[in-house]
Design brief:
Keywords: Cytoplasm, GTP-binding, Magnesium, Metal-binding, Nucleotide-binding. This protein has 421 residues and is of the alpha/beta class. The chain has 15 helices and 13 strands. Bound molecules: guanosine-5'-triphosphate and magnesium ion.
């Protein structure tokens, strides 16, 4: 794992606002950067943006502005400047020199949060892989000082370049080892998924901090970690949705998404996200109290597309409605997006309604059947309980009378088992 100094506490956030960008978008994005910085435990001293036609290819912002910032960070003792964009390796190097401070771009900040929150060996490997891929094109900058010093510290000319080549090889080797190990885990996961084929799978997806884990807890009576932090959840957790329905419904909580989620990170988390890709239904949780609802929905839909999960039936769940004071806003929201449901994970009634909604989504496709099992076939009873919802069961003289409902596929399987004799 790559370690940076954890002593950095004071941070400053900068951004360029393209002239054609809505001011609200710039401000919301800056406030999201602030939340991420706070999640990292940084003390954000301030934030500002500069309006320009586009970011400068070399210095990102105007030189005059950078001089102003340099003075400010010197006066305030700020050690880290965060940029609300992705910086090219050259821009980052230039800015570090110019500001004489540590510089992180948006991707690096997201990667750092993921690294901090990774708990399982799998998510740790996934984050490290994404970090190394991010670092690879930036190695040149890390050793450039050796060449500039030309032997001043005992290093001969070209030492930096040699060091870069050595590091590049090491990093590449580590990347390939991590990829292999993650592939193995992905295969194990596939085997587990096969074992669960006779269940319905529901994936909870959505923007980070929307309340996915809180809803998962309410729906299944578990108590997974929820926090007012970005990316509190990195690993998928699967639980059975309680209630008398067979096949069982499995609910999986997943990592949250964010605007401009680094592609390397999505690629690394592909295996964790396979629960989303293999789901029969997605609950797309949205924080209804956010003032960026549309953008959050769009981001989530884009990531779903990226991982090939955009064709799965999806129910929009507008959560945190307790924080929306204007009922009209809620009406407009839910009408504007078609099939959707309003919830608050703090309100048990609305969570129960959501649970019923999920069950109905599946049970409405069920076929209801009456069957008489002769006593010599009583061994099939277990199968009936596993593959269908048994609504009524009576032991009669000539056999067991069963009223049950299930999917058309399971109904065929059960009928075939009876006919086999
Ligand atoms: N007021 C209110 N707060 C909520 C609601 N649902 C969740 N929260 C709070 O929102 C914060 C984030 O909740 P989580 O359940 O951790 O959100 P998440 O979507 O799992 O977040 P990540 O795992 O970080 O992507 C926590 O502080 C929750 O207590 C809700 O319906 N109403
Ligand atoms: Mg969560």
């Amino acid at each position: 794992m790559i370690e940076y100094s954890r002593e950095v506490k004071k941070a400053y956030i900068l951004s360029v606002r393209p002239k054609n960008e809505d001011l609200e978008i710039t401000l919301n994005s800056l406030s999201e950067m602030r939340s991420m910085a706070t999640t990292m435990g940084f003390d954000v001293i301030g934030e500002e943006y500069q309006s320009r036609n586009s970011p400068d290819p070399k210095s990102y912002m105007g030189t005059g502005k950078l001089q102003e910032i340099k003075q400010l960070i010197e006066d305030e003792g700020i050690k880290l400047v965060l940029f609300d964009h992705d910086l090219s390796p050259n821009q980052a190097r230039h800015l570090e020199e110019c500001l004489d401070s540590m510089v992180w771009d948006r991707t690096q900040l997201i990667l750092e949060i993921f690294a901090n929150h990774a708990r399982t060996p799998e998510s740790k490997d996934q984050v490290e892989l994404a970090q190394l891929k991010y670092m690879l094109p930036r190695l040149v900058g890390m050793w450039a000082h050796l060449d500039r010093e030309k032997g001043g510290i005992g290093a001969s000319k070209g030492t930096g370049e040699k060091q870069v080549n050595i590091d590049r090889n090491l990093v590449r080797k580590r990347i390939s080892r991590l990829e292999q190990s993650l592939k193995r885990v992905a295969m194990e996961r596939q085997t587990q998924a096969k074992r669960r084929e006779d269940c319905f799978q529901v994936g909870i997806v959505g923007y980070t901090n929307a309340g996915k884990t809180s809803l998962m807890n309410g729906l299944t009576d578990v108590s997974l970690l929820t926090q007012d932090q970005l990316f509190a959840t990195l690993d998928s957790t699967t639980r059975v949705l309680p209630g008398p329905i067979n096949p069982q419904i499995l609910l999986s909580d997943t990592v949250g998404f964010i605007r401009n989620l680094p592609h390397n990170l999505v690629a690394s988390f592909r295996s964790t996200l396979s629960v989303v890709k293999n789901a029969d239904l997605l609950l797309h949780v949205v924080d209804a109290s956010s003032n960026s609802v549309d953008q959050h929905i769009e981001t989530t839909r884009n990531v779903l597309k990226e991982i090939g999960a955009d064709n799965i039936p999806c129910l929009l769940v507008f959560n945190k409605v307790d924080r929306v004071t204007d009922r009209m806003d809620l009406l407009v929201l839910s009408r504007g997006y078609g099939d959707s449901i309003l919830t608050s994970s703090l309100d048990e009634t609305s969570v129960n309604l959501l649970r019923d909604h999920v069950k109905q989504h599946f049970s409405k496709t069920f076929i209801r059947q009456e069957t008489k099992l002769t006593y010599d076939r009583a061994n099939l009873l277990d199968k009936f309980y596993k593959l269908s919802t048994v609504e009524e069961l009576k032991y009669e003289e000539d056999g067991i009378y069963i009223v049950h409902s299930t999917t058309p596929t399971n109904s065929k399987i059960l009928n075939a088992s009876i006919e086999k004799g």
